Structures are given as structure tokens and as C-alpha cells.
Amino acid sequence: MFSEPTNRPTPHNAPTQATIQRVWEHALHEEKMHSDRSNFFLVAEAMLFVFYATLDASTQIWALVSICALGILLTLMWVLIAMRQEGDFDLAVERLELFAEEYPDYSDQRDGWLRAKGMTILGRWVPSVVGIAWIILIVEILTR
């Protein structure tokens, strides 16, 4: 996805401890941004579900469909922003693997389908389940 870094460290241009610390902090920042944004969208979706659930049976269909459509739109925004943030994090991790000698060994030990990245789960699977719930609600409304 990302191009191979061309400025690999050599004995002549080895990174300083300050550089490694800065790259580490950047990776932590990207991970925190992803987590914060996922939490924001999860709370927003939950509030929208609560709003939908509090409406009574006399509510007009167009209002219910509008709420579901807003939920689907919010879910799509969640997925797109999470994918972009995941790409930013992956780039930061690539830089970290370039500068911190022990990090590639750690990340290689985490490979495998049972070790899916938390960002992938929070950024793609959770919103997908929420989106499916909105679609089910729309289908239920339209088939009454």
C-alpha cells in the first residue's frame, strides 16, 4: 500500500534516540486518534439508536426511514475515516519498524488470522455490524 522507504538507516546515518522516541510517539498518537474517533462514532450511533427506539408506533414512516438513513450515512463516514486513520497508523508503524530494531520481531510474532489488528475490528467490523442493524431496521419499516 505504501511505497518502500528509501532512507533506511545505515551505520552512517543511524537514528538518534530522540528520533526513535518521536516516531514511537507518532505511532501512539495515530492509535489514540483512531480510538478516540471510533469512540465518538460509537456514541453517536448509540444515541441515534436510542432516538429511534424511543419513537412510538404513531411516528410516520418517512421519519423512521430518515433516522435509519442518517444512521447508515454516519456508519459510512465511520468506516471511511477509520480506514484513513488505519492507513496513517500503518505508515507510522512502517517508520517505527524502520528505526526501532526490536519492533519488527514483535510485530512478526503477532501475525495470523486469530491476531487481527484491533484497528481492523474497531474500524471495519463494528461499523459493519452497526450498518447491518440500520439496514435491518429500514427493511422492517418498509415491510410493515
Uncertain regions spanning at least 5 consecutive residues: none
Look at the structure and give the mean pLDDT.
Answer: 83
Task: Give the strand content.
Answer: under 5%
Q: In the residues, how many domains can be counted? A: 1
Order of helices and strands: HHHH
Describe the largest sheet.
none
Pfam family, one: 8xMP
Transmembrane segments: 38-55, 61-81, 125-143
Keywords: Membrane, Transmembrane, Transmembrane helix
InterPro entries: 8xMP
Explain what the structure shows.
- The protein is mainly alpha-helical.
- It has one domain.
- It has 4 helices and no strands.
- The chain starts with 16 loop residues before the first helix and ends with a helix.
- The mean pLDDT is 83.
- Keywords: Membrane, Transmembrane, Transmembrane helix.
- InterPro entries: 8xMP (IPR056918).
What are the salient characteristics of this protein?
144 residues; mainly alpha; 4 helices; elongated; transmembrane helix; transmembrane; membrane; 8xMP
Task: Compile the SSE list and pairings.
Elements: H1 17-54, H2 61-99, H3 103-108, H4 118-142
